[in-house]
Amino acid sequence: MSKVDTSIYRNSYKHNMCVEMLKEGFHKSFEELFNLIEQRKRKRLEAGVDSVLWHEKSLEEQSEKLDQLWLHLTKAEAALRVGKWEEVYAARHQLAQFFLSTGDQWLSDHFFKSALETSLNIRLDGGRREAEANCNIGLALERNEQYKLSAEHLEKFHQLSVGRNWTDEASLPHSSAACQHLSRIYTALSDATSDLQEKQNYLNKAYSVAKEGSDPMQEAKAALKLGQNYELMKDSETAIEYLNHSLETAQDLHDNELIGEACEALAKSHQTQGNVSRSIECLEIFAQTSRDSGRKTELVNACNCLGVIYNTMGHYDNAVDHFTSAYQVSNELGELSEKSAVLLGVAQGNAMLNAFKHNMEIPRRHMMDRIIDWKNERCNEFGNPLPTVHMSQPPTPPRVPDPTEPFRQVEGSDLIVTE
Amino acid sequence: MSSWQHVKENESTQAQEELERSRQKIQTALKAAKERSNKNSNSNDDIDTKFNQLQNLGIKLLDILRDSGTDQHPDWINLTERMCQLLSPLEGSMPFMSSSEEREIRKKDLLTKQTKMMELTRIIGRKLLFEGKHNQAVPAAVQSLRFSIDVHGLNSVNLVPSYLILAEASIGLGKLSQGDEYLAQAEWTVLKSPDATAAVKSKLYRNIGLLYAAKGDYDNALRMLSEDIYHASKEWGTTDIHACGGYFHMANVFFRQNKMDVADSLYSQVTDNWFDFLKESVQRKIASPAATGLLGPTEKVELDDVVMLDEAQEAEAMQMLNAVLDIREQSPKQNNLSIAKVCHTLSMLYFLLNDIQKAQELSSKAQDASSRLPTNVETVSVPTFLKLSHEKSTVRT
């Protein structure tokens, strides 16, 4: 047994690997690897015992990852010595992809970053690798939810790839990919802020890049978001414009979900504009598409909206119909929806109002008796047919609720109306 | 200006006087010690015996040092003076007083003296090595080994530095097999003791690596130097100047193997690490106001704080950077950028060591090299310490 064998047996895998690397003269690889491990160790200590980092398996203990690092880092360094930057880039990119697949984001981030730095030295490819590296960094930042920085890199990517005929493995042009990523990032940025004007700016950007990115689906989504925001900013007219656009595209694509959302938003906008019939139309489409595609939550939503509108307009029977179906569907969903139940109750109350009024308006002793009876014994006889000719006039209510209900609910329904 | 010169002259004469005084002090102390050692040759207790031994060894070493002509340089005088202080009699060693407490006191005093002696002899040994006086380094190292055995026992990691000096001296004298033996001894000690620090290991492996390199066994040399770098990085970090030695020797091995690209990359690493370190030191030296003050002594104190290099490192830096510069200048395709960087680094080193003339020389060399670069290449950015050194040089001349 030689001295070398014993030391290999005695030392850790990392130790042996470092020595092996250095022995071949790959000191830069050693430095990078060593510092990566140390840096992570320090971070872990800083984060403390309670953190997620604490339970992370150290890189030192994962020999297959160390092997990958060894292989590609030394490859990169060998290429670096002879000035082949393309190969350096390829090796670093490969490492980043590998660590992305193993879920070690900090490592993939590191290598994407160094790949970008490397790409700046490649001169003869027209900036293609720089563009791709920017894209990768942008996506890495997106994974870390640093949207602003991510947007910067993706803008660079966009700028570099515009007008070029570069494509990725799936033959999607880089420029379109850039637009699609950017649109997504801008949307995320707008979601993150609560300032309407800022949202507006981001959504405008998102919409314009989406239009450029030639993905109709994304464009429609961006338009929908933009429209909704316009509505929030009390500009219903512009909102309707964008929403209509979104709806048309969605219909072309036969995407029921998007159609539903667009219709819902449109209905709201129309309603604020006072165009109730158009609003109802939209909601009907919304309900229909939801029913067709079997998305029940949306169906409940649509029915409730319709119900509210009919209720406001005084079409109580229609309202009851819609609320009933909303109530049934939400029961089917298994979640006890209080909202649907209450709305149904209100509508039913409203629908019964007429019958109750008739009862109250007939100035007969008979009726007085009934009311007094009810006062005395709480026996409910309002629904019984009246012994006079007048009795046939009022339609018999389908179900008799608790007599106190109408009063309470009339108030309640008032509230809904003003809403 | 004239007052400046005056101050400087005054200072130098003062320093001379001081040196003379310490030289005399050493003489008298040495004489006294010799007398004592002659008188006390028949001592009756173990502490006395040990102390006598210490005294004798010290005297012997001082004689050797004087014979090799080291009493001219202020650094050496400083060291010998410190040694003479250790040769003074033990505390409370008066005749007819041997209570147990008194014995304890003497024992403690002996121990501190031995420890100090160990350190001092080690420093002396190392310094002799750097000056190339391998013959004289051997007794110094043997003494340091003896003292460390006295203090720490036979199986301690603390013996390793002494072994290393011994090994290096032997290798320097061309006795490779003897050097090998010492190194094997050191390695065995390190392996046996789990508390050996990475720093010690780094030094040990560097020496073993150098021995292999001297024997021409490049493969093993590289392996050992890799171990050195690994342990140094563990202790101080990968870009620290402590790791530089490993990189440098490794580069030399690759150079001898004719693997120029690797050697080149490693030499650059050495230069870069030193450059960064010295740049920081220079910046701190410039920033500290006392360094530009008129009074000499404060400047000296400040310098000690700022440089943070011990003599060994100083010599190492000098050796490494000059070697790199030589190689750079002699390589067939001259890389002006790296030449400029080495020159700048050396210039900063000389500046920190207060050798202003050399600093300027190298700085202008660096500028020469940078001016030969194409204009679109970035040149090295250095702190502007030379303006300061211009002023100083005008003052001195």
Describe the structure.
- Chain A: Axonemal protein which is implicated in axonemal and/or peri-axonemal structure assembly and regulates flagellum assembly and beating and therefore sperm motility.
- Chain A: It is found in: Cytoplasm.
- Chain A: Keywords: Cytoplasm, Repeat, TPR repeat.
- The complex is a heterodimer of chains A (419) and B (397).
- Chain A is built from 19 helices and no strands.
- Chain A is mainly α.
- Among the domains of chain A are: 99 residues, Serine Threonine Protein Phosphatase 5, Tetratricopeptide repeat (Alpha Horseshoe), CATH 1.25.40; 63 residues, no CATH class.
- In chain A, α15 runs parallel beside α17 and α16 packs antiparallel against α17.
- The N and C termini of chain A lie far apart (88 Å).
- Chain B has 397 residues and is an all-alpha fold.
- Chain B has two domains: 122 residues; 159 residues, Serine Threonine Protein Phosphatase 5, Tetratricopeptide repeat (Alpha Horseshoe), CATH 1.25.40.
- Chain B is built from 16 helices and no strands.
- Chain B is globular.
- Chain B starts with a helix and ends with a helix.
- The C terminus of chain B is likely disordered.
- The interface between A and B is medium-sized, with 19 and 21 residues.
Secondary structure: elements and pairs:
The complex is a heterodimer of chains A (419) and B (397).
Chain A: H1 3-10, H2 13-23, H3 27-47, H4 63-81, H5 85-102, H6 105-119, H7 128-143, H8 147-161, H9 174-192, H10 196-212, H11 216-232, H12 236-253, H13 256-273, H14 276-293, H15 296-313, H16 316-332, H17 338-361, H18 365-377, H19 405-418
Helix pairs in contact in A: 2-4, 4-5, 5-6, 6-7, 7-8, 7-9, 8-9, 9-10, 10-11, 11-12, 11-13, 12-13, 13-14, 14-15, 15-16, 15-17, 16-17, 17-19
Chain B: H1 2-39, H2 46-67, H3 74-87, H4 100-130, H5 134-152, H6 160-172, H7 176-192, H8 198-215, H9 218-236, H10 241-256, H11 260-287, H12 296-307, H13 311-330, H14 336-352, H15 356-371, H16 386-396
Region (Disordered) (chain B): 1-47
TPR repeats (chain B): 202-235
Protein name (chain B): Zinc finger MYND domain-containing protein 12
